[in-house]
Amino acid sequence: MVKALIVTGFGINCEEEMAAAYRLAGTEAVILHLNELFQERDSIHNYDILNFPGGFSFGDDIGSAKVLANKFKFKKMLSGKLFIDEIAQFLADGKYIIGVCNGFQALVKMGLLPNISGTFEQEVTLTRNDSGKFEDRWVHCLITANNPTPFLNDSEISGMDLPVRHGEGKLIIRDEEIKNAILDKKLNVLTYADKDNNPTADYPANPNGSELNCAGLCDPSGQVFGLMPHPEAYLSLYNHPNREKKRRETPGISEDGEGLAVFKNIVEKIENR
What we know:
There is one protein chain. The protein is an alpha/beta fold. It has a single domain (3-271), classed as 3-Layer(aba) Sandwich (Rossmann fold), CATH 3.40.50. Helices cover 26% and strands 22% of the residues. It has 8 helices and 11 strands. The strands form 2 sheets. It has a 9-stranded mixed beta sheet. Helix 3 (66-74) packs across helix 5. It is globular and about 55 Å long.
């Protein structure tokens, strides 16, 4: 059976929802405090998917997830190994990583996304929303066709409604070279869209003002995926604020929430590998 590891601790607070997503996707989910990994009481190598959930790690005191990212990059484990080196080996073994909201911020600041250079050098950042406030509501996102990540490989789904809950979700790209590489490699896998299903930079459909209208990125391998909206918060149609309207407009609509597809996709990919 596929095994998903969901890390928690230091202000992460969406671990239960993410574990529920994997269990609904039909696989095993284990929640583990990061100190258990740093003390090597368990290993990420015992799992197929490494998950960084949302939350407010270290209170986001000096930029969302910056302290957490530095802990991952520079923290020595009990044996003296660096945790980032364990992550590099995890990816070299063909395994998968997802980060949501605060987890996405950590992946970006660790250099795992978009990782054009392949050296875990930070190439983009996520910073304060253009609105200057915390955004807590639903948005619509488009999925980039023919993108490289199996988290979003369902050809029947071109977009999804998802909730956002963040104050620092604006993607800023270091330079034009990185931006062009993101576009050429189709790494901008999820974009904010308006009511007419077009990518948009306009508020409020775009809640933060991200460059490329970006809601989610993957790396060139497709193994690492991060997004600001919360797919683990839309596991059932009952989660959606307009569920009855959706039922009226689409008779026979699935009772699954659209966010559940993200987790089902990756579980199916690993099972069929």
